[in-house]
Write a structure and sequence with these properties.
Length: about 375
């Protein structure tokens, strides 16, 4: 490195790290990311990491230990934030991490006497185990997160010159950052898990095969008639011990109608609101952003949830036409077609309200009729 410029890679590394953490906070603020402990922990961990890098050679050991302890605590919390381990267990681990970091950086603990690469491996071990654990559970969606983290770990352990470490660490953290942003599907799954916490159903016998049923109201039919049909179907499902999930797109029908349907039996009826504008609805419904990918991911999670259950469940799309108009017919068609087999095997029966008169092209109606097991006209 050119003499006198050794500080440049350090400043760049610290600034990029702090900026990536700040960007996660910004994405949460503008609602591009969910308010979840996973995101907050990684954001604050990155910001503390950036501060620790910049101040590393300019503050006393005690202050550096304090910043380092905060950094490791948040990064560990982020690594375990998606797991099924209770937050209580994670919080209990935080003081251990802070204490170990303090003792290591102040030199008053025997670990300070072992080689630096081994010490670094031990400190990053808790975070690495958490990431590997979640990769085993959630699969390939965590690949970028795993790649970024272990690239960063290898850079810190194997590279020799500090300025080289700083340069490569920037690229590793960018990959890690992209991996963090990829966890939206897992948070969708977590929302479904929380929304569907209930007493176990009692199965009366063999699971019924699922499928897709199209419901076409008359041209002059009112929304009230559709709501009545949904309420009747929910009551029928409750009598049979079948769970019902209502996928409401763009706040249709009204929140009061959705509330009334939910309270037919709160343990068996779940309202999932896909909306681009609702805020207060989060207090009583499970709210997702209006997005075709998120809709498909949510439906996939329900299928996975009931795949090995004794009973299936019913899903009601309150207005499939709204979904088609919000995106396009090919994307919606492909989403349903790709899930047809798993819907049948999991015993998940989908009822989708469809309004042909709102589609100018008759071929769109035929397209969705062709993949439906039945077409019911109201």
């Amino acid at each position: 490195m050119v003499e006198g410029l050794e500080f440049v890679p350090v400043i760049v590394n610290g600034a990029v790290t702090f900026t990536l953490g700040s960007l996660i906070i910004y994405l949460i603020h503008i609602r591009r990311l969910k308010k979840n402990i996973f995101y907050f922990a990684w954001a604050l961990g990155f910001m503390a990491y950036g501060i620790e890098i910049i101040l590393r050679n300019h503050i006393d050991e005690f202050s550096l230990a304090l910043v380092g302890g905060v950094m490791y605590s948040f990064l560990a919390l982020g690594a375990w934030g998606l797991s099924n381990l209770s937050l209580r267990k994670i919080v209990l681990a935080v003081p251990i991490i802070i204490g170990s970091g303090f003792l290591y950086l102040t030199g008053s603990f025997p670990i300070a006497l072992i080689p630096f690469p081994l010490a670094l491996t031990l400190f990053y071990g808790l975070i690495s185990v958490g990431i590997i654990y979640n990769r085993a559970i959630f699969g390939r969606i965590l690949d970028k997160l795993v790649l970024g983290w272990f690239f960063l770990l290898i850079v810190n352990i194997l590279l020799w010159e500090q300025w080289i470490i700083d340069i490569f660490a920037v690229f590793a953290k960018i990959v890690l950052f992209l991996g963090i942003l990829d966890q939206e599907f897992i948070l969708v799954a977590e929302k479904i898990r929380i929304a569907a916490q209930r007493y176990p159903s009692i199965s009366p016998g063999v699971k019924q095969e699922g499928g897709v049923n199209l419901i076409i109201p008359a041209t002059d039919a009112s929304l009230e008639s559709e709501v009545r049909w949904m309420e009747d179907k929910i009551q029928e499902n409750v009598r049979k011990g079948v769970d019902t999930y209502i996928f409401s797109f763009q706040d249709l029908p009204s929140h009061s109608d959705l509330r009334r349907m939910r309270w037919i039996n709160p343990e068996k009826v779940f309202v999932l609101l896909f909306s681009s504008s609702s805020l207060k609805a989060k207090e009583e419904f499970t709210v997702f952003k209006m997005d075709i990918t998120e809709t498909g991911a949510t439906l996939s999670e329900l299928i996975r949830k009931y795949y090995n259950a004794e009973e299936g469940c019913a899903v009601i799309f309150t207005d499939l036409s709204v979904l088609i108009h919000s995106f396009n017919e090919n994307d919606v068609f492909n989403m349903l077609l790709e899930k047809m087999g798993s819907l049948r095997e999991a015993g998940v029966t989908l009822y989708a309200f469809f309004h042909p008169e709102t589609h100018g092209n008759p071929a769109i109606t035929n397209l969705f009729k062709n993949i439906s097991d039945s077409v019911l006209k109201l």
